[in-house]
Design brief:
Elements: H1 3-6, H2 15-21, E1 58-64, E2 74-77, E3 95-102, E4 108-113, E5 118-123, E6 133-136, E7 144-145, E8 151-158, E9 164-170, E10 173-179, E11 190-195, E12 199-200, E13 206-214, E14 217-226, E15 229-235, E16 245-249, E17 253-254, E18 260-267, E19 273-278, E20 284-288, E21 299-302, E22 307-308, E23 314-320, E24 327-333, E25 336-342, E26 352-356, E27 361-362, E28 368-375, E29 381-387, E30 390-396, E31 417-418, E32 424-431, E33 436-443
Antiparallel strand pairs: 1-33, 2-3, 3-4, 4-5, 6-8, 7-8, 8-9, 9-10, 11-13, 12-13, 13-14, 14-15, 16-18, 17-18, 18-19, 19-20, 21-23, 22-23, 23-24, 24-25, 26-28, 27-28, 28-29, 29-30, 31-32, 32-33
Length: 447
């Protein structure tokens, strides 16, 4: 049996979704949706009393290819090869994103957008604490943003002993959280050699998976940076709940209590893997491969990314049973498993769910945002948000907008990033050949 067949998360899980998600090709020209609300009062001889206008969600373009970039040049692309475009939004409506820049000395960077401007957070050539300069972001184009506007990211380094690092940007300063070539805490004689993209919460805690060399072997280790200290949470070879040892880790998620949720593969155990939680609580298994889901089908594999909110609800995509086309979006918590959506059921606005994107996100009030492929609907892909039994469609390829334009294809490997302000972001592409694209925000105005 090969690795893809036995892996409880990864490629095979979302093969159907990815095939459909790559149908997309095209960014929306500058689209704006505005809705006017008016309050009517009964006729009266007196002037009507003013009433407060309700807050109305709007769709606005955040940034597009060809737009001028801070420091010179113009934005070129917001994606890297098969990596998704992830543009997290916070409760202020600020949006962090990666971009390559054309006709500029600094050809890559991490940027922060508000409703009125875009600022550079870090770019190629910026000095790194301890020596060297940032040299590339393309290996880690997935920034993390918290509600105070701080941004965590990974980048390659040149001109120093370190070749790569995890950094925290705040107040126009960079702080190095972990660097390759340095000792890996919790691993005897271990040295960092590589990092995956970090996640960040409102307490400035950062979780990430690092690759550590120990003698002739390498292993993956999950770390948490908290209160100025970097500590190991779990590593390859460590005992896993229900027996066996951890082998590999998916991308972690962290809530504002410091609880980290993560998918992992387990060797020599009763299960092949599952979704785990650790951090502010003891290491525990939330759901394991082989368990029976709410619909009575076995959970065979999981997506490589889970999401967690401040109530310790964990959302993830699971592959069900033996059918490659059977998937469900589930929520795990202390009460057990709840199903949010499943392939084959009716999707809001017509059609049926055919596959789900690999990165669900928690927004305000435990709502979950996700991308889904649709069969029999007005478009092939849609963006949805809601709770079990109360899902609404936010946008769909082919939607007719207020200005008469049509929403074209979503970006390849589409992801919607939800924020605690009730808003979310997503990316579109206008021309698959030249990769022109844009990032959009839907939600409360401001920021």
């Amino acid at each position: 049996m090969d690795a893809s067949q036995r892996s409880p998360f990864g490629g095979p899980l979302l093969a159907g979704a990815r095939a459909r998600l790559t149908v997309a090709g095209a960014a929306v020209l500058c689209l704006w949706i505005s809705v006017l609300w008016a309050s009517l009062s009964e006729p009266d001889r007196k002037a009507p009393a003013p009433s407060a206008s309700p807050v109305v969600d709007t769709l606005r373009l955040v940034v597009a290819s060809g737009q001028a970039a801070p420091g010179g040049g113009s934005f070129n692309r917001f994606d890297v090869s098969s990596q998704p475009i992830v543009a997290p939004v916070n409760n202020r409506g600020q949006i962090a994103f990666y971009a390559s820049v054309a006709r500029a000395k600094a050809n890559e960077g991490i940027f922060l957008a508000t409703a009125s401007r875009i600022i550079k957070v870090a770019a190629v050539g910026d000095a790194v604490p301890g020596g060297g300069v940032l040299s590339e972001f393309a290996r880690h184009p997935l920034p993390a943003l918290n509600d105070t506007g701080k941004i965590a990211f990974g980048a390659t380094v040149a001109g120093a002993r370190a070749t790569e690092g995890i950094f925290l940007a705040a107040d126009d300063r960079l702080k190095a959280i972990a660097l390759t070539g340095t000792d890996a805490p919790g691993v005897r004689n271990g040295t960092f050699i590589e990092f995956d993209a970090p996640v960040l919460n409102n307490r400035d805690e950062i979780a990430f998976v690092g690759t550590v060399r120990r003698g002739r072997e390498t292993l993956q280790v999950l770390y948490l940076y908290s209160n100025g200290v970097l500590r190991k949470l779990a590593g390859g070879g460590d005992p896993a709940p229900r027996g066996g040892t951890f082998d590999r880790f998916g991308l972690p998620a962290i809530n504002n209590k410091g609880v980290v949720a993560f998918p992992a593969i387990v060797e020599h155990g009763a299960i092949l893997g599952g979704i785990f939680a650790v951090g502010a609580t003891e290491l525990r298994l939330l759901v394991g491969a082989g368990e029976i889901g709410p619909g009575g089908k076995m959970l065979a594999r999981f997506s490589e990314r889970a999401a967690i909110d401040d109530e310790d609800n964990v959302a993830f995509v699971a592959h069900l049973g033996s059918s490659v086309a059977s998937e469900a979006l589930l929520i795990a918590n202390a009460s057990g498993l709840t199903q949010l959506a499943i392939v084959g059921e009716s999707a809001p606005g017509s059609g049926h769910f055919a596959a789900f994107g690999p990165r669900p996100n928690f927004g305000r009030s435990a709502t979950i945002a996700f991308v889904a492929a649709i069969d029999g609907g007005p478009g092939p892909l849609g963006i949805y948000m809601g709770n079990p039994g109360a899902i609404r469609r936010i946008a769909m390829v082919g939607d007719r907008l207020a200005n008469g334009d049509v929403l074209p294809a979503l970006a390849l490997n589409s992801v919607s990033s939800a924020g605690s302000n009730g808003g979310l972001t997503f990316a579109t592409m206008t021309n698959p050949e030249d990769g022109q694209n844009g990032i959009y925000y839907f939600g409360p105005p401001g920021g």
